Amino acid sequence: MVQKNLIDGEWIAGSEAFRNINPSDTNDVVGEYARASAEDARAAIAAAKAAFPAWSRSGILERHAIIRKTADEILARKDELGKLLSREEGKTLAEGIGETVRAGQIFDFFAGECLRLAGEVLPSARPNIGVEITREPVGVVGIITPWNFPIAIPAWKIAPALCYGNTVVFKPAELVPGSSWAIVDILNRAGLPKGVLNLVMGKGSVVGQAMLDSPDIHAITFTGSTGTGKRVALASVEHNRKYQLEMGGKNPFVVLDDADLAVAVEAAVNSAFFSTGQRCTASSRLIVTEGIHDRFVAAMGERMKGLVIDDALKAGTQIGPVVDESQLNQDTDYIAIGRQEGAKLAFGGELLKRDTPGFYLQPALFTEATNAMRISREEIFGPVASVIRVKDYDEALTVANDTPFGLSSGIATTSLKHATHFKRNAEAGMVMVNLPTAGVDFHVPFGGRKGSSHGSREQGRYAAEFYTTVKTAYTLA
């Protein structure tokens, strides 16, 4: 059965369908999904525009009930949905279930936020005048999400959009439509009025472009590549719409001489290789001071020898396959580039064969890398990391900040002095001390600096900055 797009409360078949393939077993078709046309996208936008007046003025209990019901169903079905996620994206079953739980927690949080909507009442500088400051929904919100977190990222965009009274046109990554379709189906059955949430699956060049071209989309939130993010920004400026971008990262993880070696290695392996390195917060630059460098590299090699790379659904698998052939080719191309640049491939980087045909790659660790190499400057988005040797903390901090990106940054140290200084001086939106650079909570702000992000933060109460607009009203007493 072909899973359809949702437009104005109706499930609509596209002119063609595309297959969702399991990267752990390319013979396994997860499902078939309808591909929306530009005309479908325009119909979805029109439906969202028509639904906005009523939904934006709906009661907070109505919104709370729908979003809370959605959270409850996601959490109740976490094993089923987590398996679907792992089957279509390739992250391990434990990671798939964990991401699904996070999505449920996000919807639960924003169900509560519906009941916490607040403003301010202030005295005017002029006598006998009152001032009210309130937040109102922006309007029709376009949501474009990537393939690497196919349920969590849609959740942290859709939930606040609906919570604050916006209507939505949602385009998930074509590579992994299953988890997104499931969320939309749950929300639709939870009682959303028709037109409030519209799902248009398909090609970014068709569906995404139709969204960018429309003057009836009042805000766009996008997570994906830097190049596409720039196109979203340019199109949004033309229409004077709000836009929020989460893009690339080249996140550093600093290891100082005084670090607990075991803690440093576990954090580095998790940062660089878990979820097959396919996280914008993954650390692919391991910046290590001279005194611990050789011991760290040796310990990393030993730890990497024990990693289990296999079918995402198989018990005991620690790292699943790369998401598809195109991404696998990109990873292996960068491994070749690293060698050509003079870095030493100290471990891994080999294609692997397993019981089923899939995109299996042994995590790769380079040593003798410099921060000027392409493998240290460009986002690879795979299980490939480089060790950069530095003299001391000061050089480590300089190298860590020497990047066009600024999403996440980490340090392994037992020094309170260095940890405190690093938290203040790391040029990143998120800083981790003795923890992996990837992995954040659902109720706190997420986002970066420089080329990694643009606009207000996502998640938590900070989401209100993007999904609402501020109104100031004066009343003569």
How would you describe this structure to a colleague?
The chain has 477 residues and is an alpha/beta fold. The protein folds into 2 domains: 2-247 and 452-476, Aldehyde Dehydrogenase, Chain A, domain 1 (3-Layer(aba) Sandwich); 251-433, Aldehyde Dehydrogenase, Chain A, domain 2 (3-Layer(aba) Sandwich). Helix content is 40%, strand content 24%. It has helices at 38-56, 60-76, 78-89, 93-114, 152-163, 177-189, 204-213, 226-239, 261-273, 290-305, 325-341, 374-377, 393-401, 416-425, 464-467; strands spanning 2-3, 5-7, 10-12, 16-22, 25-35, 120-123, 129-137, 140-144, 167-171, 197-199, 219-223, 242-246, 251-255, 283-289, 344-347, 364-369, 384-390, 405-406, 408-412, 430-433, 449-450, 453-454, 468-476. The strands form 6 sheets. A 7-stranded mixed β-sheet has the order 15-16-17-14-13-19-20, sandwiched between helices. A 6-stranded mixed β-sheet has the order 10-9-8-11-12-22, sandwiched between helices. Strand 6 (120-123) and strand 7 form a beta hairpin. It is globular. The termini are far apart.
Give a brief outline of the structure.
This protein is α/β, with parallel strands linked by helices and 477 residues long.
